[in-house]
Amino acid sequence: MSFRRGVVRQSKFRHVFAQAWKSEHCLDDIRVSRVTWDGPLCAANPKFIAVIIEASGGGAFLVVPMGKSGRIDQSCPMVSGHAGPVLDIQWSPHDDNIIASASEDLTVKVWQIPDGGLTCPMTDAIVTLEGHCKRVGILAWHPTAYNILLTAGCDNVICVWNVGTEELLYKLDDAHPDLIYSVSWNKDGSAVCTVCKDKALRVIDPRRGVVLKVKERVHEGTRPMRAVFLSDGKILTTGFDRMSTRLLALWDTKDLSEPLETQEIDTSNGVLVPYYDPDTNMFYLCGKGDSTIRYFEVTNEAPYVHFLNLYSSKEPQRGLGFLSKRGVDVNKCEIARFYKLHERKVEPISMTVPRKSDLFQGDLYPDTAGLEPALLAEQWIAGQDAPPLLVSMSGGYTAHPSKHRDNLRVKAQLASQDSGPAAASPSAAAPTLTSTSTAKEIEVEVPPPRVATKDRDGNVERPKREDELLTELLAEMKALRAVVLAQSQRIELLEKQLARIEDGDV
To answer: Which three-class secondary structure state does DSSP give residue 100?
Structure first.
């Protein structure tokens, strides 16, 4: 029994499962692009889903509002301002209506999508960036600075733009001797990591144009690689060995001489694309042409990378869109969502942590990066760095009506004898408490404890018993807080016992 306890690793994400949505919630009759570029072909945010599609006479992509489902009519308006096929699209992390697109026509365009989606075809971009001499296939918005966009093309050049002024800020044309496979910003946007056809991993300061670190022959295979910065500064890479076995490796930027961890995945030709979630410290591996999604958890202790589970389906994926964390459904304990591209369909796939409680699960949803940028473009250009500004995920949580939740309501006694109908209005109702499964401080949103009455002249006067009522309300809230805290501790204990039973320890 003690041996099993030593082997089983405790993690709240051990039982994460993936589930495809029903067909009535999918987008049908979408002609997904057949371009041979190894890109995701899809981008999603809490407002819109964008998909690169087949189009005659140039490149185009479709933008539909989040929540739309069913058949997409062929006459549906699309964004079609490029003269060549679109290779990559990326939503701005600081404005859910702004999207950038890169194309074979050597340009990068930035579009502003109106609220509610397109009502007519969009051909005029708000910004057009021209600086590459070959097709552009990689886009990467700065994670914390407003209007900073990085682009990389088949000319082996990296460009950093100020989208607000359409100015080319930095051009790195001598850092890579061959085709660039991927680019990723670190957490505060002070550096980027890249992998190139020469099999080297590079860490670059784009403002100084300096290659800070280089690791030659990260993977021995000749097929494309990918690299992504993790939130703690480590770098995750995917690639191939000489026998076409797909691999992943974790690197410490302080010492790139040897990887911290290397794992073999399988043998296939598809390029493994990592999608990283900094909030849960999980990453997902998906390959174009695969029918599987593998997901892992990264920890600070050896062996660092832990395989969690595998989602498998019958149909191969043409591409995948990864929804930003602000768009997931916290009521269903959804921690990630993909949009899988079929030949003529877009299928949502949810990653969910099974929980029996209908309360907001604060341990699954730490504060995440919000829309507000930490820096202006001018501040970043001047040399400043800052981590993302975080927002609480509980704002997207709506309490379920249930008999259990009725016991967690504060019934404020604010009605006075001379207060009239205004005091009994819905605005005077008590707030609903939300609790996590961990024993954390319980936050209570208190409405203003003022019940205004009007005299005959229409003037607002203070209630006579306001101080007494406020004292009673605070005392009742204090008692209720203790009850909720005790119940949350009880829930946590029961969940641990359940996990031990499922693991066979009891």
So the answer is: strand
Closest to 188 in 3D by CA, of 201, 207, 174: 207
Supply the pLDDT for residue 494.
83
**pLDDT score, position 18:** 95
Strand partners, 240: 246
Q: What is the DSSP string of 8-35?
A: SPP-TTTT-EEEEPPGGGSEES--B---
Residue among 139, 223, 219, 154 at smallest CA distance from 185: 139
pLDDT digits (tens, 9 = 90+) for 355-370: 988 888 989 999 999 9
Which residue's structure tokens are 């993302």?
388
- Report how far residue 277's alpha carbon sits from residue 193's, in angstroms, rounded to the nearest whole number: 17
What Å distances lie between residue 180 and 226, 316, 339, CA to CA?
10, 26, 26
Secondary structure class of 296 (helix, strand, coil): strand
Q: Which regions of the chain are under pLDDT 50?
A: 1-6, 399-464
DSSP 207-268: TTTEEEEEES-SSSSSS--EEEE-TTS-EEEEEE-TT-EEEEEEEBTTB-SS-SEEEEEEE-
pLDDT at 465: 58
Question: In 3D, which of 431, 428, 437 has the Cα closest to residue 484?
Answer: 437
Tokens of 114: 């109106």
Q: How many CA atoms lie within 13 A of 427 on its CB side?
A: 8
Angle (CA) 153-59-192 rounded to 5° is 25
* Cα gap 275→262, rounded to integer Å: 18
Instruction: Give phi and psi for 108, each to the nearest 5.
Output: -120, 130
Show the tokens assigned to 164.
């607000």
What number of CA atoms fall less than 13 Å from residue 501's CA on the CB side? 6
Bond from prior residue into 303 cis (ω within 30 degrees of 0) = yes
The 3-state DSSP class for residue 496 equals helix
Q: Cα–Cα–Cα angle for 497, 501, 504, nearest 5°?
A: 140
Cα 317 to chain centroid distance, Å, stands at 20
The pLDDT score that the predictor gives to residue 457 is 43
Cβ 294 vs Cβ 321: under 8 Å: no
pLDDT at residue number 38: 87
Going by C-alpha positions, the residue among 51, 52, 79, 47 that lies closest to residue 66 is 47
Q: Give the burial class of 138: count Cβ atoms within 10 A of its Cβ; 0-12 exposed, 13-18 middle, 19 or more buried.
A: buried
- Angle at the Cα of 240 (from 235 to 246), degrees rounded to 5? 90
pLDDT of residue 36: 85
pLDDT of residue 450: 43
Residue in the structure block whose two tokens are 């041979």: 36
